[in-house]
Design brief:
Distance between the termini: 55 Å
CATH superfamily of the largest domain: Rhodanese-like domain
CATH topology of the largest domain: Oxidized Rhodanese, domain 1
Number of domains: 4
Number of helices: 21
Structural class: alpha/beta
Helix content: 25-40%
Strand content: 15-25%
């Protein structure tokens, strides 16, 4: 293999400003990445490179820049460059000096995760003066029995974990779609909340942009602000929007037309999409913004699931190529149009809604299955749940540390795949080392690496999910730790202690992002006056 190219910080910043296609991939674990990174770097840990690279960077000639912290972890970019070259990626460079070199050049370093989207939320609030109410005012309205409805813009799992009293789960892209049925009385005040700030702001402004007659406000600082104000939350609730009525659907389609006109949301045909997909020099993402169950029931072949609210809140979970073309799909264009309007305001250069997305071709069904490079070529012994019984067996769990804490096979050790050479030194040697991960895929990928360390290795067939399905017990907590828990970015609600201090720090961080954006100077956020 020829020597990997490098790119200096100044040249990389110029490439970002140029607006051409570019993927900046930070190969560190997510928790380490969250401590500091480039604004437009997308986190893709080396541990997961095989399983995510094809979705993140589908075109093999896309310019890619790899980065890590610097000299201390340069092995991450070295290995990443080798693997990408093996998979056919032809334009890969490494950032000279890594994050340390970028900072030394005088450029901004951002902490946290999903920063471009969160910074955009603050931009929206400042630009449009999105109405908001502090928790105390909302609580007083509830106590007074005012005509109001609380719409929680988070996905179901977050809502089900905890929510504002009376709140109904209506994830972000569903708000303008469902609000007409949830608040048919124009005198009803609509309060939109999320965990913190971004989805509350974007959700409330979506309804305002849609022109509904109701008063709309964001709950200031979301569930965190509610908790910090000393008010009780609900847990395990099941309130969710009902099926859409014909009247509600007609109103949703009407407002989508107005939003499309205001923000210049274009559509494309299936023939145009096919031509774009065949284009050698351009990246096109096809993302379905509906609910998970709708996606699995039938979707455009080759599209990926990216719920609209989450796509706006965290586009870097789905897209890595700056300057790429984005095509959004749904069943009638409403949710795709609302989502597209926000991506356009974020500065994405080409965003389209696929016209009659589900009508013009045979649909694919079931969950999306990503391409995992090299998985089928790995030959490794497997064992079932019964194979973990007896002496001389040690289990290594490669799930993320948060998943491990919430439940793992009793006695299993936690380790991070990209750091197994060090992690396994802390794990007792055994007759057989069995690797597991939630679905077994990461465990299989890691098996040759553990075997190269001199251990006899097997993989738990079906992963930890098979263990659970077999009715086997699970253990909670950080019981056997061979590595640090900095593989995950822990949200305040994920922490075992000091939650309130973390909440205050998090909210201050979000609010201050606007000032840091001004110093950075690389965003292309767009304002659309009324």
């Amino acid at each position: 293999m020829s020597e990997t190219k490098t790119i200096g910080p100044e040249a990389l910043r110029e490439a970002i400003l140029a607006g051409s296609e570019l993927a900046i991939l930070d190969l560190r674990e997510l928790g380490v990445f969250g401590d500091g990174h480039l604004l437009f770097a997308v986190n893709l840990p080396l541990s997961h490179l095989e399983a995510r690279i094809d979705d993140f960077v589908p075109r093999k000639t896309t310019p890619i820049v790899l980065c890590s912290e610097g000299e201390t972890d340069a092995h991450l970019t070295d290995l990443g460059a080798i693997r990408l070259a093996d998979w056919g990626y032809a334009d890969v460079a490494v950032l000279e000096g890594g994050l340390k070199g970028w900072e030394a050049a005088g450029f901004e370093v951002f902490s946290g995760v999903n920063v471009p989207s969160k910074a955009f939320g603050e931009f929206v609030e400042h630009t449009y003066d999105t109405p908001r109410l502090p928790p105390e005012d909302v609580k007083a309205m509830m106590d007074a029995g005012e005509n109001m409805v609380v719409l929680d813009s988070r996905p179901w799992d977050e809502y089900h974990n905890m929510n504002i009293p009376t709140g109904v789960d209506v994830p972000g892209a569903e708000l303008a779609y469902r609000v007409h049925d949830l608040a048919p009385d124009p005198n009803t005040t609509v309060v939109v909340n999320c965990a913190g700030r971004t989805r509350s702001i974007i959700g409330a402004q979506s309804l305002i942009n849609a022109g509904i007659p109701n008063r709309v406000v964001a709950l200031e600082n979301g569930t965190m602000g509610w908790h910090l104000a000393g008010f009780d939350l609900e847990y395990g609730q099941h309130r969710r929007f009902a099926d859409l009525t014909d009247e509600g659907h007609a109103k949703a389609r009407a407002i989508a037309e107005k939003v499309a006109a205001r923000f210049g949301v274009p559509t494309c045909t299936h023939d145009q999409l096919a031509a774009w997909r065949a284009e050698a020099g351009r990246t096109t993402y096809v993302l379905d913004v509906r609910n998970p169950e709708e996606f699995e029931a039938g979707h455009v072949a080759g599209s990926r699931h990216a719920p609209g609210g989450q796509l706006v809140q965290a586009w870097d979970r789905y897209i890595a190529v700056l300057g790429a073309r984005i095509v959004l799909t749904d069943d009638d264009g409403v949710r795709a149009t609302m989502t597209a309007s926000w991506l356009i305001q974020m500065g994405w250069p080409e965003v389209y809604v696929l016209d009659r997305a589900l009508e013009a071709e045979a649909l694919a069904a079931g969950p999306y299955r990503p391409l995992v490079h090299g998985l089928d070529a790995i030959e490794v012994a497997t064992v079932g749940p019964d194979g973990l019984d007896g002496d001389g067996v040690v289990v290594i769990d490669l799930a993320d540390s948060l998943t491990y804490r919430d439940g793992h096979i009793p006695g299993a050790w936690f380790a991070v795949r990209a750091r197994l050479a060090d992690g396994t030194k802390k794990i007792p040697d055994a007759r057989l080392t069995v690797l597991t991960s939630p679905d077994g895929v990461l465990a299989k990928l890691a098996a040759p690496e553990v075997a190269a360390l001199g251990r006899d290795v097997a993989v738990l067939a079906g992963g930890t999910a098979a263990w659970v399905h077999a009715g086997q017990p699970m253990e909670k907590g950080f019981t056997n730790m061979a590595d640090e828990t900095n593989d995950v970015w822990y949200r305040p609600y994920d922490m075992d202690d000091a939650q309130e201090g973390a909440m205050k720090q998090y909210l201050s961080w979000e609010i201050n992002l606007v000032n840091q954006l001004d110093r950075d100077g690389t965003t292309r956020f767009r304002a659309f006056p009324d």
